[in-house]
Design goal:
By secondary structure, the protein is of the alpha/beta class. The chain has one domain: 3-Layer(aba) Sandwich (Rossmann fold), CATH 3.40.50.150. It is about 40% helix and about 20% strand. The protein has a seven-stranded mixed sheet with strand order 3-2-1-4-5-7-6, sandwiched between helices. A hairpin with a 5-residue loop joins strand 6 and strand 7. Helix 3 packs parallel to helix 4.
Length: about 220
């Protein structure tokens, strides 16, 4: 689970966090390979417990089409791909070519690979190139861009669909006044206020991983 290196606290007590993680079991060796790959590179992950929330929430709304603002090598896409089923699709975005290479290598031969399409480029650029509506959108890019991602996502998510965002508690930093030179924390604080005041969505924050916000687009915003 990704969080700032100078985070003042863990979102959950370490024993509780480890206990929840111990319950996130899977007989699919790919998830172990993805986690091992991230650990070998010190790559920040959304975390398995947050990933299982992505899958469960997407299944609950019958989601079949998902977009990711930021995909890395496909860890979160793995959980979305499980949720959308064989006829669904997960469209990701990633600017670094080596992440796409790792994604293709790690997912090679796996049934979920056919459900995931990660395109190279900036998240906003890739998003603008897509047609149609989405059932769910994940925001997991540079923190200063979160407010813009939300504004672009809302019109493209169907009524009753979800907008999810990682790192909204930011190692506990969003609960405290942001330092003058801490633009990421300030941006996330503004984003969180935006989530709870925007009349087009209804939002709650799950204290899992590094904080996962869940926003549902209201039906009257069709």
């Amino acid at each position: 689970m990704s969080h700032p290196s100078d985070a003042p606290l863990h979102i959950l007590h370490p024993e509780v966090r480890d206990y929840i993680h111990s319950l996130c079991t899977s007989d699919d060796p790919l998830i172990e390979q993805l986690e091992a790959h991230a650990q070998s590179r010190n790559f920040p992950l959304i975390g398995r417990s947050s990933g299982e929330w992505l899958e469960l929430l997407t299944r609950m709304i019958g989601g079949k089409r998902v977009f990711e603002f930021g995909s890395g090598f496909g860890f979160s896409a793995y959980f979305f791909a499980r949720a959308v089923g064989p006829q669904g699709e997960v469209i990701g975005s990633e600017k670094d070519a080596h992440e796409l290479d790792d994604h293709k290598r790690l997912f090679a031969g796996h049934p979920l690979a056919a459900r995931i399409r990660i395109e190279q480029g900036g998240a906003f650029e890739v998003f603008d190139q897509q047609q149609g509506m989405f059932d769910a959108v994940l925001i997991d890019i540079d923190k200063a861009s979160y407010p813009q991602a939300l504004e672009q996502a809302i019109p493209r998510v169907r009524p009753g669909g979800l907008i999810l965002a990682d790192n909204v508690l930011w190692g506990g930093k969003t609960a405290r006044p942001a330092a003058q030179d801490d633009g990421s924390t300030a941006a996330l604080q503004a984003f969180n206020r935006q989530l709870v005041t925007d009349p087009r969505i209804q939002t709650a924050i799950l204290p899992c991983g590094d904080g996962l916000s869940v926003s549902m687009k209201r039906a009257d915003e069709a």
